[in-house]
Amino acid sequence: MYNWFIDYLHGHKQRVVVDGVASEWSEVTSGVPMPFLRFINDLPDVIPPPTSTGLYADDTKLYNAIKSNQDCGQPQKALSYADNWSKQSNIDFNVSTSKVLTISSQKARSNGSTVLVQQN
């Protein structure tokens, strides 16, 4: 898959056209190619509720509200589904740039909190 993306980007050029005026052509050296976006668009379909997903370029966010002790396992369950999807799709998440963010109020800490799990 990696080689396919490299081949796809190699030699590709782009330009911007605004009101009929075009910029110079320049070589594409970075960015997220459209086929990649189509390739990853089915990831939200495999993540079980109540976890929500957010996709933007090559970032993926998994998040859900933790309102009870039973909800605490949901982020890990969603990550397991995402991991299985990534293995089947031959896409690796960059674990070294992944973070867990807990957002809560002092009151919510005793009753639960909202957790955002991010995979890049």
Describe the structure concisely for a colleague.
The chain is of the alpha+beta class and 120 residues long. It contains five helices and eight strands. The mean pLDDT is 77.
What would you say this structure looks like, in words?
The protein has 120 residues and is α+β, with helices and mostly antiparallel strands. 34% of the residues lie in helices and 26% in strands. It has five helices and eight strands. The chain has helices at 2-9, 34-40, 43-46, 74-89, 106-111; strands at residues 13-14, 17-18, 21-22, 26-27, 52-56, 59-65, 99-103, 114-119. The strands form three sheets. It has a four-stranded antiparallel sheet, with helices on one face. β2 (17-18) and β3 (21-22) form a beta hairpin. It starts with a helix and ends with a strand. The model has no long low-confidence stretch (mean pLDDT 77).
Globally, the shape reads: elongated
What is the total tally of β strands?
8
Secondary-structure element order, N to C = HEEEEHHEEHEHE
Describe the biggest sheet? 4 strands, antiparallel
Mean pLDDT: 77
Instruction: Give helix % range.
Output: 25-40%
Which structural class should the secondary elements be placed in?
alpha+beta
The value of Rg in angstroms is: 19 Å
What percent strand? 25-35%
Strand order of the largest sheet: 5-6-8-7
**Termini separation:** 17 Å
| Count of individual helical segments | 5
Low-confidence stretches: none
